[in-house]
Write a structure and sequence with these properties.
Number of helices: 5
Order of helices and strands: HHHHH
Strand content: under 5%
Distance between the termini: 30 Å
Helix content: over 70%
Largest sheet: none
Oligomer: single chain
Number of strands: 0
Shape: globular
Low-confidence stretches: none
């Protein structure tokens, strides 16, 4: 039987919190996709419900899948995958900010959050904390 594992070190708690935040974002996208898209400053076209399905499927599904696996299995390699996903999310935002003239307060705040969500599991998974 699988038992829920509680983190035992400070570094593991940081990685766990990143996974929990990822699950929270995934649940928001799954249960309230229009509100979540609006919070991300994205807008769907009324005649294209596929955009809402994309938020629920691709975005929520990936966040929930990786986040839940990280919490259930609590393995450093899974935390590395979570951290790498957030790191590349931040990298994509940084590239967009440089090439699309997207240096806005919203993008800077999102980039800072993505760096934090990436750093915690990466530092733990690599054994640095």
């Amino acid at each position: 039987m699988i038992e829920f594992y509680w983190p035992s070190s400070q570094g593991e708690w940081l990685a766990w919190c990143s996974a929990a935040a990822t699950i929270g974002l995934g649940l928001a996208l799954l249960l309230a996709p229009r509100l979540s898209l609006r919070a991300m400053r994205l807008q769907t076209a009324p005649d294209h419900p596929e955009a809402v399905a994309e938020a629920r499927a691709t975005m929520a599904g990936f966040y929930l899948g990786v986040g839940i696996c990280a919490l259930i299995f609590a393995q450093p390699l899974i935390y590395l995958a979570l951290g790498a996903g957030w790191a590349f999310t931040g990298f994509g935002r940084l590239i967009s900010m440089m090439s699309d003239r997207g240096v806005t307060l919203f993008n800077l705040v999102c980039l800072a959050i993505e760096i934090l969500l990436a750093a915690a599991p990466l530092l733990y998974g690599l054994g640095w904390i």
